[in-house]
Amino acid sequence: MIEGDSADGDWEYRPVQLPGDVSRMTAAVRLAIQAEFGGWELSRVRLYPGGVRKVWLRRRRSSRMLPELSV
Question: What InterPro entries has UniProt attached to this entry (predicted)?
Answer without folding.
Answer: DUF5703
